[in-house]
Write a structure and sequence with these properties.
It is built from three helices and five strands; from the N terminus they run H-H-E-E-H-E-E-E. It has helices at about 1-45, 55-65, 100-115, and strands at about 70-80, 85-90, 120-125, 125-130, 130-140.
């Protein structure tokens, strides 16, 4: 009985930490996949009637046939209490693209894409995963 109690206490100490790490990794993977979908759509250069991509269509029209050659350069994460901030850094070789407009459109796409394709919930413009607030920041660099 004593040994079973020790095993149960050990499990109670290890499992919550493992699940928390797993949750954080899942969130980062979701964001990475969504950012890649946005880059793929813009690099393809073909407008779609799919409402999921409607936030990216104005940017695609401004590109006027130019492929931006966007790619995800890196993901940076920071956590404070129950808030995770994920910064997505994208890169493009072209200087003619307005980085702020592009970053804003991709950030909006990621928010709505994660809300519809994962179990992250968009509430008042903020993504929430369980009791964790997820902030997404997108930067585009040359």
């Amino acid at each position: 009985m004593f040994i079973a109690g020790i095993i149960i206490v050990g499990i109670m100490l290890v499992v919550p930490t493992y699940l928390e790490e797993s949750r954080d990794i899942s969130i980062v993977a979701y964001v990475r996949a969504s950012a890649s979908r946005a880059c793929d759509y813009l690099n393809m250069g073909v407008l779609s009637n799919d409402s999921r991509y409607s936030v990216l269509n104005p940017v695609l029209e401004r590109l006027n046939g130019l492929s931006p050659n966007l790619r995800v350069l890196k993901l940076e994460t920071s956590q404070f209490n129950n808030t995770i901030t994920i910064t997505v850094v994208l890169t493009t070789p072209y200087s003619t693209i307005d980085n702020e407009t592009l970053a804003s459109a991709i950030e909006n796409f990621i928010l709505h894409d994660l809300n519809t394709t994962t179990n992250l919930v968009l509430s008042n413009g903020t993504l929430v995963y369980g009791d964790t607030v997820v902030n997404i920041v997108v930067r585009v660099e040359k």
